[in-house]
# Entry
Amino acid sequence: MKEYHPPLGDRSGLRLDFNENTLACSSKVREVLAAISTAELTKYPERAPVEALVAKQHGLRPEEVLLTNGVDEAIHVLCQTYLNPGDALLLPVPTYSMYEVYGSSAEARVDRVQAGENFGFPLDALIGAITPQTRLIAIANPNSPTGQTVIREQILQVLEAAPHAAVLIDEAYFHFFGETVMDLVGKAPNLIVARTFSKAFGLAGLRLGMLAASVEQMQWLRRVISPYSVNSLGLACLPPALEDTAYLDWYVAEVNAARLLFEEALDRHGITRWPSRANFVLTRIGVQHRRFVEEMRERNVLVRDRSSDPGCEGCVRITIGTHEQTLDAVRALEETLAEIGWKGKR
Ligand code: PMP
# Structure
């Protein structure tokens, strides 16, 4: 199995390494948390009413929504549900690491298709790699670590080319992008859409994600998922988080504007970067990538080395936060570049 090395401690500083919301969740969520009753803590979590609410918010039927302990649990459940030993999980790469981790834990074969030039979605190669063993295809849109997107027409082509496979469209970064295929849930029988509350909503610590799929797919997923994997605190916080659209809209606008600011700084210094529609930017630092990450950390800014991802040699991914945080990040970047003797593109 491929190993994944998440940070399990010591992330003090400006956390631009894991694409979380870098500021806060809605204050409405804090109010609900402060008022949690003893009853809510003593009884097992009751997910159905919150699933119904989430469904309504997304224009879905309650049976079409499954709340999960983050999208990570959703991916785990999908792999447990659809993959048997000998089946194949198909992935365009580079992409989010946990697909492969959970796919291989289900003893499935992992078929990888390298992204095209500039990390473009490899539509033809992906369709060409579909086999009778392909049972699950996972596509992050926008993708991580590249920030690249897939257009709806291409998603439709994948859905049609693999009627025997479940196709996960992981919309973890949807809010920064704004395009979705959620409206196809229930219409495209093999489509499964994931969303997380860890990113734009700022609730990564509560572990909240969701899957949306046709009732036929959902009946299998519900058999596999642990009934209490989403805890009572998370369930209590979802309604106010969803309701406070003003906060969500503000945060997304703030990040999308700050991303432009950061991209300008990268361009000024001749650092290769790829266009992103998410709350992060992938840069190519080159041979000094490790030192770059260390020097940024010295300046209290955590960034993520993605050099070992396929096709990402020398690459570092940097999360975008608020305007003010981005000014701090640019300062740290400029000091770091001076420290490592950066002389332009590598
Ligand atoms: N999908 C993608 C593409 C991600 O980048 C992440 C977060 N790193 C996840 C899913 C997992 O999110 P969650 O916190 O909901 O488990």
User: Anything to note?
Assistant: The mean pLDDT is 96.
